Amino acid sequence: SLVRKPTMPELARDEQQNSASAHAAEATDGKPRSRWSSHTTFLLASIGSAIGFGNVWRFPMMAYSYGGGAFMLPYLIALFFAAIPMVVLEFALGQRLQRGHVALVAHIAPRWEGLGWATVVGTFLSAQYYQTLLAYCLVYLVNAFRDPQPWAVEEAARSLSESSSSLDGAEASSGLQPGSGEAGGETEADAALAAVRSFWREEVLQVSSGVDETGGLVGPLCGWYALVWAVVCLGACDGASSIGALNKLLMPMPFAVLAAFFARAVTLPGAGAGIRTLFSPDFAAIWSPSIWVAAVSQLFFGVSAGLGTLTTYASFSPPSTPVGRSAIIVSLSNSAFSLFAGGTVFGFLGFISHTTGEPLESLVQSGPALAFQVFPIAMGLMPLPQLWAALFFLMLLNLGISSAVSMTSPLTTALCERLGTTARRVAPPLHLLGFVSGLIYVSRAGTYWLTLSDHFVPMFLTIVVGLSQCLLVSLAYGARRLLESLPPEDQRLAPWWAFCWQWLLPATLSLLLLAQVIHEGSSPFGGFPGWALAVGWVYSLGPLLLVPLFYCAHARAHGGRRGGGVMGAVRAGLELGAVRARARTSSSAVPEVSRVALASNEMSRVAPPVDEDLFSVVVLTESERPGAAPQSEPDHAKGSNEMADG
Fold this sequence. Notes:
This protein is mainly α. 70% of the residues lie in helices and 0% in strands.
């Protein structure tokens, strides 16, 4: 087996690396590495990164689109067999090595440093369209205090409110029965729905006719977009201290506000039908690869796996902090909030469908419109609608800002570590660049680009990065070596985590990625023109071009040794099994030192020179065999064993 317990020289080397990690935790200016004030603060920050805007609109829309209740089966399987193991991996790497994501990848495999940069750059690009959603929230928040609110017809809202007082008597007396005609409430209900849609499209988006018609910037929206970037920049300026303080302030509120909306939703006529629609299974959809890709991508993007955020956040925690329990808490909190939000959204959708007579299928729209059209109607059903509208959009801002800060922090931290400076110097110009280059999202065609970006980035970038992380840990660092460095509390499930990282996740993610690429080629997304889809592919996978660039630069800087790199690692790997087998099956009469020297000489003969950071050579000595008595290690054998890299 390639997975074995580390030898004494390896453990000694790991102790030295622990010391090195402690020194790495110090900034170049002599200040100690930023730390969370407590483990609870770390959990709140990680949950704040996981729970965001997507829980309110993306999860309900995807669950409904991919078979309703049938989506829940792949979702739950992916939660326990993909998302939680990946979060454990990222937490373990960040805590063990005490580095930001890019420095962490460079430490494990220097030639593959480009993978770290591709991750944090891709995450930063995702933040550009994510900030647009927060700008939408600010538009609605400012208008929430107007009386009447601009997205509602006052009389229709009052009529809708009266219809919810009773399922039978009041519903009939108010004339809000479906199909009651123009004289009844149907016209008023339709007017309320039309007013919400009109405000969204004509006032907020000022949407153009298509993706190919930019139409210029939307002035007010551009101003709010700039304000959002400024707030996110302030949140990223002081590292863990500012992020922790922000999440302590923001995280408790969303749960309370969503609970109030859910309590109101379940009392409305038709809400039960809407919730049943969300969770009613279409089992035929389970056999489609797309539903599994959607489940994994939703979870990875939801818990911030494959974005560089979790490794960065974990690097601010002490190395002795348990990671398994934290990963489970963060992952389950994200999924629970998603299910809670999904039930709330579809409860209101069921009521709107019941009242207007419009099929629920026509009410479910892709993109953030689901949240910005359903909840404004819901607010008209609450007492003091101005108050509830303000609370709701403040809740979305709370969710969004914590997630947005987590999206820009990995690149900020990486630049700080590379340049040897502080976040206060890096964050302002970096966030200014993000604002300027993201202005396309606040143009009149911005909603088209947002939909395109939201499809390609979670579907591909997060899965590619997650797969690459598993391969790096398995081939370059060593799963058992990483697990041995964790606290005793995490050792109970160590074999399971190792199996997931080395076999289950690489195989599953590879198959899903291949299936989704084939699906995208045969069924282009959303009716977009070919050139726009090409831009989506570049947006999603373009950052990965940094991988070969950094690889070639590193090879050139180090002389490009013959046989190194990927092909050298593959050739060495093919010879490794035979060499280790010969070392294990050598006669017991052969002295220990001779057998080790023989294996070392054989390895140097059959295998080309290989980058030490990319592949590890393992030589089993007699003392490592099962059942062998402990033996002291000769001094002249240590040189051979120190080849072992876990």
